[in-house]
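Escalation from tier 1.

The customer reports that the assembly of two entities below gives different structure tokens on two consecutive runs. Tier 1 could not reproduce it. I'm attaching the input and our single run for tier 2 to review.
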Amino acid sequence: EPEVTQTPSHQVTQMGQEVILRCVPISNHLYFYWYRQILGQKVEFLVSFYNNEISEKSEIFDDQFSVERPDGSNFTLKIRSTKLEDSAMYFCASSGLESDYTQYFGPGTRLTVL
Amino acid sequence: AQSVAQPEDQVNVAEGNPLTVKCTYSVSGNPYLFWYVQYPNRGLQFLLKYITGDNLVKGSYGFEAEFNKSQTSFHLKKPSALVSDSALYFCAVSSIKAAGNKLTFGGGTRVLVKP
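Tier 1 run:
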């Protein structure tokens, strides 16, 4: 069964450093998302992406964040200058027509900012 | 604005007994409702959804959920719980049946099924 994959599973970085989180969505899906879950809190929407542009973003998704689909398979989230409060689990999701737009999630990347 | 409430942080149930995980929602317009389950160190796995039609929705692993528009609820149920159902369950809502639309999640309910 196709699934969303994410790398790395755990990323540790120093405050102020740039990080790139990578995702490979399900191959025939066209809609991509990033969510995050700070420890002990709700899963929160960050951004959705379609046709090489952002469809919607939350207030969390400020200028420090960016997304990109650099090739036909990867979808990335970049945090330009990490802050302590960026420490969270980041989930990638994808959806497509055949799934009736149900979003399927990857296993997540745990980001720890020191 | 859309929101989801899961009033119970944890639900404890004996194996073989019925399991109910509660969810209420608030959304403008028609709600599109989802349940996901998260096992330790795993991502969110889709269980079931309500888009339109029959108020009783059946999903994976014997789970079902009942949409109640008047009570704005979408409770998850399983007639006979298994120890392997122990996990974190999330209810989510979207206000538009459209691609790229965000999901708003509840805080999650931890289910513990005891042998």
